[in-house]
Amino acid sequence: MNVKLTGLKKTRILNSDDVFGIMQKMLHRENKIDSQKDQERGKKEGKKEGEERGKKEREIEMAKGMLLKGININDIADISGLSKAQITKLSKTGTSSFNC
To answer: Do the Cβ atoms of 57 and 79 come closer than 8 Å?
Structure first.
């Protein structure tokens, strides 16, 4: 890490209190950077989870609609991306509630 110091600060660095203060500032800056990276990573993960959940909900809604129209379970599985077991469970519990 590059630390820019003026001539005066270079001479004062011999004082251990100054070194300690500089190290604290550097640590604080690094912690802040790490915290920002963690926040960005959390946002990305949350977005991905939300997109996956939305896709799964869309598949379920699509399957419900096809069941109501009397479409064959094998065809619903091919079109919706849900398994035959999930669609069978959906058909037995009715189209009002279903968890994959």
So the answer is: no
